[in-house]
Amino acid sequence: MIADVRERLEKVPFAPFLIRTSDGHEYLIPSRDQAHIHPRGHCVIVFTDHGTTVVLGPLHINTIVEQANGE
Q1: What are the two backbone dihedrals, phi and then psi, of residue 66, each rounded to the nearest 5 degrees?
Q2: pLDDT tens across 2-22, in order?
Q3: Rounded to an integer, what distance in angstroms lies between the CA atom of residue 30 and that of residue 36?
Q4: Collapsed DSSP state (helix, strand, coil) of residue 10
């Protein structure tokens, strides 16, 4: 799933997407700056609009959903 996130972050033009985790949380990625992949490629770091940072391991990322309008 990390490769899927990387693919979406590198997509030109960028399209917003949502990461859904195994515990049911959803993280909207409205721009490239809101998520990064660790240099070693073992987790995704998400920066939320609420000022928090979430680290997601590959086993906890269940679904990636394209967002047509960033909603």
Answers
A1: -65, 140
A2: 999 999 999 999 999 999 999
A3: 13
A4: helix
